[in-house]
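S1.2 Input.
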Amino acid sequence: MTWQHKFNEALGKYAGVQFSRVRKAAPESPARPPADPADRLLSEPVFILSPVRSGSTLLRSMLDAHSLIHAPHEPHVRRLAVEFGTSLAERSMTALGHNRCDLEHLLWDRVLHRELVRSGKRHIVDKTPANAFAYQRIATCWPDARFIFLLRHPASIAASWHEADPGKRDREQAAADALRYMKAVQRARKRLTGLTVRYEDLTAAPERETRSICEFLSLPWEQAMLAYGRPGVLKKGLGDWQDKIRSGSVQPGRDLPAPEEVPETLRAMCRSWGYS
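S1.3 Output.
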């Protein structure tokens, strides 16, 4: 044991404190597509990119009622991270051709594939709203991924986001926070190919909209999608847990706000999304 270690041990014993080496933050590794198609267990995973409170739990419940589609609660796989415990482990993975992002992509793919296999179905749908902030990583991880962009009137989103937890965010804060998601979805829509669905259309004409989605996914339409039953998970933080979604069938959406009811901060997005 070196004198430095002995000194540090004594310091801890008698003074109750010790010195520790501060690790340097690991440099960002580049996100890159799979080196080989066989690196991915999932084939053509589907991602619903939407703001919070835009009806994604309703849509995922309708899709999950399809005999071939598994749409679980929000898995948040993009928050699963890989850390190298030692520099030796990092050098070893580098020698094998893997950087940190490569390993995270393998983890994400494995978790979703396991969920799909357990369901016994063929196609998986991930509807985590925060995925909108990571659309580039998702498209890089799964080059064959398919995307559904779910839109809703921006003012209705903000109002619903406030009502979901009034004590946490007032109306102004809810509008500002929801706008971050809207802008992220808008960036994704400009850079990715996919199908755009509007919540107002989904609730007003559910058969027409679900038929369009099934056509986009190259799947047959099923009547069961219109009466989806009680969602498998109803828990705050994993999607919508409110009364409408508990009903098990599509309920009418709220009336669209009058122009003068739209917050100034959301008017540009309303125009961009065709709600003005």
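S1.4 Remarks. The radius of gyration is 23 Å.
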